[in-house]
From TrEMBL:
Its main location: cytoplasm. This is Phosphoribosylformylglycinamidine cyclo-ligase. GO terms for biological process: 'de novo' IMP biosynthetic process; adenine biosynthetic process. The keyword Ligase applies. It catalyses: 2-formamido-N(1)-(5-O-phospho-beta-D-ribosyl)acetamidine + ATP = 5-amino-1-(5-phospho-beta-D-ribosyl)imidazole + ADP + phosphate + H(+). It comes from Arthrobacter mobilis. One of its GO terms (molecular function) is phosphoribosylformylglycinamidine cyclo-ligase activity. Coiled coil: none annotated. It is found in: Cytoplasm. Keywords: ATP-binding, Cytoplasm, Ligase, Nucleotide-binding, Purine biosynthesis. Residues 185-348 form the PurM-like C-terminal domain. The keyword Lipid biosynthesis does not apply. InterPro entries: PurM-like_C_dom, PurM-like_C_sf, PurM-like_N, PurM-like_N_sf, PurM_cligase. Residues 64-170 form the PurM-like N-terminal domain.
Length: 377
C-alpha cells in the first residue's frame, strides 16, 4: 500500500491552484453585464449548463440557413495583460466572430465565450466579460453562456486567452456570396478603428525591436503607444445588416457582398468573396494610412507587401454594391457614423497581371482576384 509522509498537508483543489470560490465571485460580478444583452428569446439565467435561445421566429422563414463562426483575439491579449486593462478586449473577440457571420448576410443571434487563465482574479474576469457583453450589445447579439477555466502550471498567474463562437441565421434567398457580384459593381471601404485584432505578432516584434515602452507618448498618435495598440476593434455587424436591409427598401439593388478584413489583409479577404473571372481594382489613393500603420512600417522597416498581407491598413470591412446603389450606401453608412468611401470597382480579370499587387484566390478559396493600384494618399 502506498503511504504518504505523516506531516504532509492535505492536498486540495485550491492548493493545486484552482480557486472555485474565485470563479463563483467572477460570475456574480459579470451577471448584470451579461443580462443586458438578453432579449425575450433568451431562456434561463446566467450559470446554466447550456445557454437556451428560442428560435420560434425561424418558423416564419421560408428556408432558414444557420451560420456559425468561432475565433479568438490572438496575441493582442499580451498588450491588455501588460497594461492591466481588460475591459476592451471583448470588442476584439466579438468583432472577430460576429463580423464573419454578417459577411454572408446572416444576423448573429447569440454568442458564447471561453476564457482560459492561469489564475482566476474575479475582477479581471468580470472586466473581460463586461467588454464582451458591451460589444454584443453593439452587435445586437445575445451573450447566452460561457466558461472560465483555471489552468495553473499551463498559463502564468496573470496570463489568459479568450475565444468565442456565435450562431446566426439568414434566409436562403438572401444569402450573400460571390455568385451575386457583377461586373461594374462598386467596392466600398469602411474605416477600421485601428489595428483591430490581427497582425499583433508583427506589431509586437516591431515595437520590441525598437525598444519602445507601452507608456511612451507618441505625438503622431496623440496618446501613448499602449493606448493605441489596445484600441478596440470596430464591430460592424449592425451597420452591415442595416445596409443590407436599407438598400432594397430605398428602391435600389441590394448589397452584393461583404468582406471582413482580418488575417491576410485587404486583398486576400476581398478576393475570397469574388467569383472566378472577376477582379476588384482597388485604388490605394482613395484613403490615407492611419498614423499607427505608418509608424509600424517605419519603425520596423516593414515592406509594403508584408504590411498589406498582415494588417488592415485602415479598412476593416468592405461592401460590394451595384453602381446605382453606391451613393445611397455611402450616405447610409456615414449617417450611422461609419466613415466609408468608394475604393474600387469590379471588372474582368486581367490575366497578364502578376506580382505582390495582384492576388487571385486566397485561404483555400478558388475565387476572384484583387489588383491594388497607385500609392496611399
Amino acid at each position: 500500500m502506498t503511504s504518504r509522509p505523516q506531516d504532509a498537508s492535505p492536498i486540495t483543489y485550491a492548493s493545486a491552484g484552482v480557486d472555485v470560490e474565485a470563479g463563483d465571485k467572477a460570475v456574480e460580478l459579470m451577471k448584470d453585464a451579461i443580462k443586458a444583452t438578453h432579449n425575450a428569446n433568451v431562456l434561463g439565467g446566467v450559470g446554466g449548463f447550456a445557454g437556451l435561445y428560442d428560435v420560434s421566429a425561424l418558423l416564419t422563414y421560408r428556408k432558414p440557413l444557420l451560420a456559425t463562426s468561432t475565433d479568438g483575439v490572438g496575441t493582442k491579449v499580451a498588450i491588455a495583460q501588460a497594461m492591466d486593462i481588460h475591459d476592451t478586449i471583448g470588442f476584439d473577440l466579438v468583432g472577430m466572430v460576429v463580423d464573419d457571420i454578417v459577411v454572408v448576410g446572416a444576423e448573429p443571434l447569440y454568442m458564447t465565450d471561453y476564457i482560459a487563465c492561469g489564475k482566476v482574479v474575479p475582477e479581471r474576469i468580470a472586466d473581460i466579460v463586461r467588454g464582451i457583453a458591451a460589444a454584443c450589445e453593439v452587435a445586437g447579439t445575445a451573450l447566452v453562456g460561457g466558461e472560465t477555466a483555471e489552468h495553473p502550471g499551463l498559463l502564468g498567474e496573470h496570463e489568459y486567452d479568450v475565444a468565442g463562437a456565435a450562431t446566426g441565421v439568414v434566409e436562403a434567398d438572401a444569402l450573400l456570396g460571390p455568385d451575386r457580384v457583377r461586373d461594374c459593381d462598386v467596392v466600398i471601404g469602411m474605416a477600421s478603428s485601428g489595428i483591430h485584432s490581427n497582425g499583433y505578432s508583427l506589431v509586437r516584434r516591431v515595437i520590441n525591436h525598437a525598444g519602445w515602452a507601452l507608456d511612451r507618448q507618441v505625438s503622431e498618435l496623440g496618446r501613448t503607444l499602449g493606448e493605441e495598440l489596445l484600441e478596440p476593434t470596430r464591430v460592424y455587424a449592425a451597420d452591415c445588416l442595416d445596409l443590407a436591409r436599407y438598400l432594397p427598401a430605398a428602391g435600389g439593388a441590394g448589397v452584393r457582398g461583404f468582406s471582413h478584413v482580418t488575417g491576410g489583409g485587404l486583398a486576400a479577404n476581398l478576393a475570397r468573396v469574388l467569383p472566378k473571372g472577376l477582379m476588384a481594382t482597388v485604388d490605394r489613393s482613395t484613403w490615407e494610412l492611419p498614423p499607427v500603420f505608418k509608424l509600424i512600417a517605419e519603425l520596423g522597416g516593414v515592406p509594403q507587401p508584408d504590411l498589406e498581407r498582415t494588417l488592415n491598413l485602415g479598412v476593416g470591412m468592405v461592401a460590394i454594391v451595384a453602381e446605382e446603389s453606391a451613393d445611397a450606401a455611402l450616405a447610409r453608412l456615414n449617417e450611422r457614423g461609419l466613415p466609408a468611401w468608394v475604393m474600387g470597382r469590379v471588372g474582368s480579370v486581367d490575366s497578364s497581371l502578376t506580382g505582390p499587387d495582384f492576388v487571385q484566390g486566397a485561404k483555400g478559396v478558388d475565387g476572384g482576384a484583387v489588383h491594388l493600384v497607385n500609392s496611399y494618399a
